[in-house]
Write a structure and sequence with these properties.
Layout lengths: L7 E7 L9 E2 L4 H6 L11 E2 L5 E2 L4 H8 L3 E8 L7 H10 L10 H9 L9 E3 L16 E2 L15 H16 L6 H20 L16 H15 L5 E6 L8 H25 L6 E7 L18 E6 L6 E3 L19 E2 H12 L5 H4 L12
Parallel strand pairs: 1-8, 1-9, 5-11, 5-12, 6-7, 6-8
Antiparallel strand pairs: 2-4, 3-4, 5-10, 9-10
Helix pairs in contact: 2-8, 5-6, 7-8
Amino acid sequence: MGEVKNRKLVVVQLSGGNDYLNCVVPYTNPEYIDNRPNVRIEQEDVIPLDDQYGFNPAMGPIKELYDDGKVAIIHGVGYPVPNRSHFRSMDIWHTAEPTKVGDEGWLGQAVREMHPDGDNVVAAVNFSAALPRALVANNAPVASVSDLSTYGLLNHMNGGDQRSEALEAFRSMYTHAIGSGPVMDFLSQTGLDALKGSEILSGVPDMYSSNVEYASNSFAQRARDTAQVITADIGTRICYTQHGSFDTHTNEVALHKTLWNHVAGGIYDLYTDLKEHDASEDVLIFVFSEFGRRVKDNGNGTDHGSGGVAFMIGDGVNGGNYSEYPSLDPDKLVEGDLAFNLDFRSVYTEILEDWLEVDARPIVKGEYEKVGALSV
């Protein structure tokens, strides 16, 4: 493969099931209009991509990036035998194992391949309180940060001596556990990794300055934290963010617009920030959700469905549309849902091999044709 490039991946997980039909809207399709008497985007509100499809009105910033050739829309993405449980469906996406409960996350395995010695404790940074299974794998350390500005076990300590003493106390606490069984070994190593990660990451905000003004919502703040970590160039390869809940059973139109307003604005600001720091060429943003929603609305919202949409965003992307928008014809639906027509493991294969330069086959357990959205 030649020289390994230091490319980074930013994952944006739309938790709860993003409504594909109200995200990339088939606004002239009579089946859309008939099935969504109450929960649809009106034609005059859609941001048109062409005479058939358009973005949700809250996705203006994504449309701007799309017009610049920076956005690949990946249609109909999913997996065989759809599962409408949030937990199980997200688990499938996280482990790339649709038919059984997977042991390890797809990105955790990638981290281990990129850093087989486990010596980079900030190779993957998770910006949320809960650690996604996608990042979990043996010997693949992950730093979890809910707020970078207050991160670091010891960042409230000013004095160098005080800090050093506290570090020694933590070290002592963790290392006493070593040698008392594999579980304690794992915990002590995890503790030491977290300690080292904390040390590295707590200094990151001091290294950052930007002209980009991020919004005050939680996703925008995580996008800013992501920009800080990437521009600090501390060896982080994967940043993982989440936003939601996109579980829009009620009050969907307003709620979905608000959520996409946060996500679209945050992604646009992150891209702009990275570009300002000459860092955008090496960063790919991948946006996904565990499933789409039902074609027919429930009166005020939509229920769990299948067949979804994903996005790849960045300088390394061939902008445009990939795969096909699933048919809304009643006889083509799967139990009233959009049918998937692209296996998500095809997308993973392309990201792993063409962006992170990791062999995808052991992670996705087979050969999947790439979608061709990356220009590398």
